[in-house]
């Protein structure tokens, strides 16, 4: 059966919103037009996307103590408990930086990194992928981070999706730097333009709010390298609030923090954390769950989210991953 | 002496003074004012300066502790201030407004709030 692009887009259009990927995903495994396209995409990419989900956690700032959040690591620990209740469990956990809050006191940064690892070790999901934030790696070029967590950037493949962890903090300024750009160029060279790519990093790779240091100086160069690819999602932290930003075919999704929240920069002049509310200690903190189809997404009902305001971002997450279903370079009628 | 005559007299005095200054620096223009700005964790001092649109100034930057950034895209400022060095940065603001200059070189736990304001009239 030949499917035209308009028809396919109608399907993905339905995928935006509640339960979206859940609805579209089964079609990918069927003999229908979407399944035909999925097979063509798998052929082009060398590997089909098979069902899985993953969790992004960000900005845990272990060691932070202050008025914006006097509860320390409570939100992080609760998030770990929530992730452990996800059914089915996610395959991966991504941490997008500021794992710890920095300190100039001798030995304290290492103690905080060990504490982070202790809390993260309670996750039943054992495959963790991390990138540093400036609080982890901005003062020493990432030396201590490497001792505890390994390289500050890395790439891996998982069930048909290529993941890239990018370091835009350890040069102290908000930048990736020429060496990492060269590495990224080389890493991407082996992939066809239809390959699904998830890039995760700490700071936004676009100019979200430069006067709040919400940008990456050479972020445009990163995105230029990704420009040929049709299925790119960028996940990041740093801004301690949700944000969704579309540039061309790329969707940038920010995670909430697990320690305190920042306000909407469009609404306020000064960058100051939102005030702590004792009656709602975890307001605007939480985690993001992204589901990569096909297959059903984890059900919110399996997560107790009455205490933490959970960012169960199946919906915006599937918007991001809806891009995986946009085979714009696959000609209509390509053989499966 | 009439008001007009007094005015002409002041103008003449100003003209002579300008001519003397021009003779001193040889350029025919007054040297730009120098504004010293000191950076230290996690503040710039002064935290606010006011400039005149179109009037050149020299920003004399120094750090009292570690490396700091000095960054404002709309003002065209993008400097690294190393401790022990003095950096002179010429600036001629083009447009009136309030601009935020940030430290964009991570300097510690309070780095995220290290900024100053430049008001251009």
Explain how this protein is built:
The complex is a heterodimer of chains A (336) and B (121). Chain A has ten helices and ten strands. Chain A is α/β, with parallel strands linked by helices and 336 residues long. In chain A, the strands form two sheets. Chain A has a six-stranded mixed sheet with strand order 4-5-6-7-9-8, with helices on one face. In chain A, helix 1 (5-15) crosses helix 2 and helix 8 runs parallel beside helix 9. Chain A is globular, with a radius of gyration of 20 Å. Chain B has 121 residues and is α/β, with parallel strands linked by helices. Chain B contains one helix and nine strands. Chain B has one helix at 3-25; strands at residues 33-40, 43-45, 48-51, 57-63, 68-72, 77-81, 86-91, 97-102, 115-120. The relative contact order of chain B is 0.21. Chains A and B meet through loops of A and strand 5 of B.
Give a brief rundown of this model.
Chain A is of the alpha/beta class.
Average per-residue pLDDT of chain B, rounded, comes to 84
Categorize the overall geometry of chain A: globular
Number of helices of chain B: 1
For the CA atoms, what is the radius of gyration of chain A? Answer: 20 Å
Run of helices and strands of chain A = HHHEHEHEHHEEHEHEEEEH
* Biggest β-sheet: strands ordered side by side in the sheet of chain A: 4-5-6-7-9-8
Percent of residues in β-strands of chain B = 35-45%
- Describe the main β-sheet of chain A briefly: 6 strands, mixed
Which percent range fits the helix content of chain A? 25-40%
Note the gap between the termini of chain B. Answer: 36 Å
The largest pleated sheet of chain B is described as:
4 strands, mixed
Largest interface: A-B, 19 and 17 residues
Topology:
The complex is a heterodimer of chains A (336) and B (121).
Chain A: H1 5-15, H2 20-28, H3 33-45, E1 52-57, H4 74-85, E2 92-96, H5 108-120, E3 128-131, H6 134-137, H7 143-149, E4 154-158, E5 161-165, H8 178-188, E6 196-200, H9 219-226, E7 231-236, E8 243-247, E9 250-254, E10 288-292, H10 314-322
Parallel strand pairs in A: 1-2, 2-3, 5-6, 6-7, 7-9
Antiparallel strand pairs in A: 1-10, 4-5, 8-9
Helix pairs in contact in A: 1-2, 8-9
Chain B: H1 3-25, E1 33-40, E2 43-45, E3 48-51, E4 57-63, E5 68-72, E6 77-81, E7 86-91, E8 97-102, E9 115-120
